[in-house]
Specification:
Oligomer: heterodimer
Order of helices and strands of chain A: HEEHHHHHHHHHHHHH
CATH topology of the largest domain in chain A: MetI-like fold
Largest interface: A-B, 104 and 100 residues
Number of helices of chain A: 14
Distance between the termini of chain A: 28 Å
Order of helices and strands of chain B: HHHHHHHHHHHHHH
Structural class of chain A: mainly alpha
Helix content of chain B: over 70%
Radius of gyration of chain A: 26 Å
Helix content of chain A: over 70%
CATH architecture of the largest domain in chain B: Orthogonal Bundle
Strand content of chain A: under 5%
Number of strands of chain B: 0
């Protein structure tokens, strides 16, 4: 820790240079961040403000700006009496279940792959493939696999002797669970990779001393692995929740909210309201509620992190 | 003891291979279906290796048929490459500014960038659409590229790496009279090259797979990207499932290739972003 005189001198010199440069830094600093900041202002910040303003209006963007009517919080109160919106919101809440299921499966896979398996990186690639593939392609493939009458899944079930296999995406009760199965399938690779990185950072000697104490596999998992990856679990839980609120592609391609809105979600209802029914104001209030939910989860992250995470 | 270990490992590997089947089977089915004549697609038991091959006809129909995939491909390659390059340039510049330069209001501006990251893209598509109409960016590749290029994510990710650079190293260059632009190009960028590669691959994959933005900001069929193309193809060509599967194989294949070639970068990038949170 002893600093030599030469090093201290060098540091003092460097600090002087830093001070002298500061004025020059001001200008070049703005030049460096300028393009990104300009882009974000035009494409994100201004739209956010416009969206907030429009959420208090009754307006359609094909009508022209002079037709704007301010209606206060009417859009928001309408939303809570809008059956389709409430169903979509409920479906979004059900979709949250995807995340813990995904995390349990991927943690188990990660532990097995990390410690007990040959060809580690081969497995990483295999499980990650769905995540790399486009959701549009995946959705189309699953549509065929789960086809009610010809799909391989139902043909297989029939061959096993199941008389009336579920008609999956066409059935009001099975459609949302089918979507959830696909979402779990797609997302496992991501959590798996993050978990494997977390497992690698657990000190080996913890396990060694547990071995000396005669701890079994299960005890080692519950007493060492699980607590030590809890920050990762928490991170994956929060980002997972946020991303389920943003799922749109899979619904649009797979079901378009059908049958009978049983798979509609907020983003999809927002899309149809804005671009098919052309109710700009109403769609904007939905957009802000969506933003609100995401913010709520983010706040939960900020406060919850200290409480529930064991470092 | 050792022998037991080997047996245990082999068992676990076999078990994992079975789990892995659940992940590979849909892909294998897709590829196999794309090689078959239409009537064989839903045959049961499944002919994993087709008895009758129709590969040339299927792929020719998809690539140069009524919805020509080569157009969608070219559009997607163009948009993805340009988005990646522009995003890489502006993100790394901003990241360098926020990490290694000192200027007035730096922290406040960084908080602004942070906040844009929390806004879900679906919350602002309507005003974005209106702005694009006004600026005549609607139904153009330029608009799509701009939307993809300006994301705070790259700025965050790369900033982490620029923060990790040794300050003395950069200060030494300053003492030699190098300007910030020169330091950025000659020293900082080369030092974080692995991080840039990771971000570039991820951005390329995300743009290639993007469905919502082309759906909303493009209208002309001649400008459509692959994701829009296969969906159109799937909904308009009715029951030609072998052709649809040839389309999805074509859409996924380049990404699988890029992923396998760059898997180290992709996996490390995801792991790093994830663990750091």
């Amino acid at each position: 820790m002893n600093k030599t005189l030469a090093e201290t001198g060098k540091q003092a010199q460097a600090a002087a240079v830093r001070r002298k440069r500061r004025r020059g830094d001001n200008l070049s600093g703005y030049l460096f961040i300028g393009p990104m900041l300009l882009g974000l202002t035009v494409l994100t910040i201004i739209p956010t403000i416009i969206s907030l303003i429009l959420s208090f209006t009754d307006w359609s963007f094909i009508a022209g700006l002079d037709k704007i009517k301010f209606t206060g919080i009417k859009n928001y109160s309408l939303l809570f009496h809008d059956r389709v919106f409430l169903i979509s919101l409920k479906n979004n809440l059900v979709l949250l279940l995807v995340v813990p299921i995904q995390l349990i499966i991927s943690l188990v896979l990660a532990v097995v792959i990390d410690k007990l398996v040959y060809f580690k990186s081969f497995f990483k690639v295999i499980f990650f493939m769905p995540y790399i593939s486009s959701i549009v392609a995946v959705a189309i493939v699953f549509q065929l696999l789960f086809h009610p009458s010809y799909g391989p899944v139902n043909q297989f079930l029939k061959a096993l002797g199941v008389k009336n296999p579920p008609i999956w995406l066409a059935d009001v009760h099975y459609a949302l669970p089918s979507v959830m199965i696909i979402m779990v399938w797609v997302g496992i690779g991501f959590s798996l990779i993050v978990y494997m990185a977390a497992l690698q950072s657990i000190p080996k000697d913890l396990y060694e001393s547990a071995d000396i104490d005669g701890a079994g596999t299960w005890t080692r998992f519950t007493k060492i692995t699980f607590p030590l990856v809890s920050p990762t679990t928490f991170f994956l839980l929060v980002t997972g929740f946020i991303s389920t609120f943003k799922s749109f592609d899979i619904i649009k391609v797979l079901t378009e909210g059908r049958p009978a809105y049983s798979t509609s979600v907020i983003t999809y209802y927002l899309y149809t309201t804005a671009f098919e029914n052309l109710k700009t104001g109403y769609a904007s209030s939905m957009a802000w509620l969506l933003f609100g939910f995401v913010m709520l989860i983010t706040l939960f992250q900020l406060y919850g992190q200290k409480k529930w995470v064991n470092y | 003891m050792r022998k037991q270990n080997i047996i245990g490992r082999t068992m676990a590997t076999i078990l994992m291979l079975m789990a892995g089947m659940a992940f590979v089977t849909p892909f294998l089915w897709m590829i196999s279906a794309s090689f078959k004549p239409e009537i064989d697609v839903f045959k049961y038991p499944i002919e994993w290796i087709p008895k009758h091959w129709n590969i040339v006809d299927n792929y020719r129909e998809v690539w140069v048929g009524e919805h020509p995939f080569y157009v969608y491909y070219w559009n997607t390659v163009k948009v993805s490459v340009l988005t990646t390059l522009i995003s890489l340039l502006f993100s790394s510049m901003a990241a360098f500014g926020f990490s290694n330069l000192e200027f007035k209001g730096r922290n406040a501006l960084f908080v602004v960038v942070l906040m844009t990251f929390m806004i879900p893209s679906y919350s602002i598509i309507v005003p974005q659409f209106m702005i694009f109409k006004w600026l005549h960016l609607f139904d153009s590749h330029l608009g799509l590229i701009l939307i993809g290029s300006f994301s705070a994510l790259g700025t965050f990710m790369l900033r982490q790496f620029f923060l990790g650079l040794h300050k003395d190293y950069l200060d030494a260059a300053k003492m030699d009279g190098a300007g910030n632009a020169r330091i950025f190009v000659r020293i900082a960028v080369p030092l974080v090259r692995p991080a840039l590669a990771t971000y570039a691959i991820l951005r390329f994959i995300w743009t290639w797979n993007d469905y919502a933005n082309p759906l909303i900001f493009l209208r002309s069929d001649s400008l459509a990207t692959i994701q829009i193309g296969i969906q159109k193809f799937a909904s308009e060509s009715g029951a030609y499932y072998s052709l649809i599967m040839a389309g999805t194989v074509s859409a996924i294949l380049p990404l699988i290739v890029i992923f396998v070639l760059g898997q180290k970068q992709v996996i490390e990038g995801i792991a790093l972003g994830g663990v750091k949170g």
